[in-house]
Amino acid sequence: MRNRELMRLMLSAGLVAATALAAEVSVPTTGLAADDTALSNCPARKPVLRLATQTGQALYSTHPAEARFGATHYTRLHQSPLFGANPLETGIDASYGVIESWKYLPGAKGMILKVRKGLTFNDGSPITPEDVVFSLNLSKSKFADSQINGTLKRIGIEPKVIDANTVQLDFKKGNATFNLEMSPLVFPLYVTSKKYHSNGEISQAAVDRFRSKPLAAGPYRVIDRQAERFLTLVAARKDPLLGCPVYDRIEFRSVTETGTRMNQFRTGQVDIISGARDLVKQAKKIGATILSKPDANTIGLYIFQADYPGNVFANRDVRLAANYAIDHKLIGETIFSGVGIRPWGCTWPPATEISTTNPRYLKACQTPRPYDPERAKKHLAAAGYKPGKGPTINIEYSASYPEEGALAEAMQPMLKAVGFNAKVERVDRAERNRRRWSGKHINTLLFFGPGGRLTSLAGANSVWGPTRGWGPKNDKGILAAINRASAADTIKEYTEGMADLGEVIYKEGYGPGWFSAGAIYFVRKEIGDWGLGKSKGRGPMNLSALVTKR
Question: Residue 21: pLDDT above 70?
């Protein structure tokens, strides 16, 4: 059943076409009159939608190149993606993107992209092939989000304008999943105006100028924001891709404390909040609709910087000891209430991958290691530690999802029981990134719970890539696997590369996974269910389906 569903998604995403290297995806272009985007062409709007979510310290950046996969639910509302996905995020749909058609070059060593005619930024200036090329170069620069620039650099992408509505992409090697990986289903690449971005300047100063006075390309625009705190959108235009805005105003707030979010929901201050499993009954009593997004978090451990001097986790036996020390079934039954979870043995790559069509991938990651404290003690002994005298380690969390703090507290006594001296520490995202890039994540367990996605190449580059601050630089198996997946000229070859990666991660104990878990949201009854459970996208929620209408 699952393989049939994945094949359907691959067909909708254009992936089978990429495998054949012959098919072309296209949607007819319709020219737009100057006044077609006026808000007066839209029906009356609802006044406001207010969201309070646990975001893991979202940047709430207004710059398209700084937008992370976790920002899709709001960035997509004020920017236009290179490749489109339907608002429900069930598959690729060319009619929702800047590129109206694409064709892979032989060996998937590039693509021919056709830019949709008549599209504009919100200031009325046209979206051109030059803007597409500029946006790709900007996104692979050091000023873009580290995950997307790392992925584009590894692919070795070189874009160039061919004619008035055509762009050619050349890849250093093959890459058969580019149109999916760079779409709102995974890690969307947005198109930025070259002229408005300081006449094509790619520098920190130019990025800062754009961020302070952004140019939108969507049905909404940003009027206010503060990093890690809030972002506010207002209706801007009838968008040629998403259509009309449904609300006059949308307010996004980052609220870490579950009790605070619940109180704000109860008193009518917000309309949608990140919920908690232990509060579902209480939320129903006050009239909330309970919605869930499947596979929103992959729960398990990350063991990073294993090649760094002084890291006790450089020893495989110590990594395996941590693997076996955690009673993940108990955690699933208690902290996650057994709701919306399914077993998975790797933190990355995830259970939602198209690579689950590959038997080797499933064999590597489908089954978590069992809870076995006696085996954990034996591994610590093999590493040279006496009983009860294991290494001192840090359990670090950043409140990326509601259960993260409780998970840290639950793991601490389990690790201590087998001999670790485990300490719990909560840090914000800025500090986590500082430790990442300065080599300070030695002797540390992280578990920030990334969400599932159909292709996980960008994520694999981010967490295991040898130049991204976390992945071990001395593990040839990881490097070979990522290179194989990055250079794949067919979907089958891509899944072989991801299977290689899963085998290394599981065998070496770098990323012991336990289960994937759905995200719970409490929604005001009058809003109802807009199809959140259907989303296959990487973002927190498919909000376009709720707040826009063609």
Answer: no
